[in-house]
Design brief:
By secondary structure, this protein is an alpha+beta fold. Among the domains are: about 40 residues, no CATH class; about 90 residues, RNA-binding S4 domain (Structural Genomics Hypothetical 15.5 Kd Protein In mrcA-pckA Intergenic Region, Chain A). Helix 2 packs across helix 8 and helix 4 crosses helix 8. The two termini are about 30 Å apart. A hairpin with a 2-residue loop joins strand 1 and strand 2. It has a 5-stranded antiparallel sheet with strand order 2-1-3-5-4, with helices on one face. The chain contains 8 helices and 5 strands.
Length: about 210
């Protein structure tokens, strides 16, 4: 599947805020957003124009899409699926995105960014319930166990990750056994527990036009 391969820092600048697409680098002085927080392009440094209602909705959709690293058609498919589920459509949408395998690998602390997590999944480093899964968009379900492949446990990147993860930083809908290098998707996350500052209702309004 096609994937955005350009400079990710430009995406943060376009949205006017940090999207933490480079993991730990985004919280250091090396983060380019600290030096250039204005939009990319020839006129990016000029004053931003006031957005229309449609523009505000579009920017919110683009922000969520870029945070999770999902392309337009796939994102729209997630929305359609969320709209068919019981409950609040916007919350359903974020729950689906959080249930992606690459995002779950990132949330468990095996990777420093979703992009790195996506590469790890593609390189066949993870099992789901004992079965090898190399599809980043695979949706994990309640009770699913995500574990590092036995051969991959010797890699330094995973040992470094487990040393970096603190138990108190684990998300409420996940549990992690650092010794076994495996985590469990306990339940679907509540909206209040998902740590991204977005107004998902604007996305619903955008697609409802």
């Amino acid at each position: 599947m096609a994937r955005y391969a350009g400079p990710v820092c430009k995406l943060c600048r376009r949205e006017g805020e940090k999207l933490f697409l480079k993991g730990n680098r985004c919280v250091t002085v090396k983060c380019s957003f600290e030096k250039k927080s204005y939009a990319p392009g020839q006129h990016g440094a000029s004053q931003r124009t006031k957005l229309s209602e449609y523009g505000i909705q579009l920017r919110e959709k683009q922000k969520v899409r870029r945070i999770y690293g999902v392309l337009e058609r796939q994102f729209h498919n997630y929305f359609q699926k969320a709209d068919l589920l019981k409950g609040v459509t916007g919350e359903n949408l974020l729950q689906l995105l959080e249930s992606r395998l690459d995002n779950t690998v990132y949330r468990l602390g095996f990777a420093q960014s979703r992009n790195q997590a996506r590469q790890m999944v593609k390189h066949r480093h993870f099992y789901v319930n004992g079965r090898l899964v190399d599809i980043p968009s695979y949706l994990v379900k309640q009770g699913d166990v995500i574990s590092v492949k036995e051969k991959s446990k010797r890699l330094a990147v995973f040992h470094d990750s487990m040393r970096r993860v603190r138990d108190e930083d684990m998300y409420p809908w996940l549990t992690l056994d650092k010794a076994k290098m495996e985590g469990t998707f306990v339940e679907k996350p509540n909206r209040t527990d998902i740590p991204i500052q977005v107004q998902e209702n604007l996305i619903v309004e955008l697609y409802s036009k």
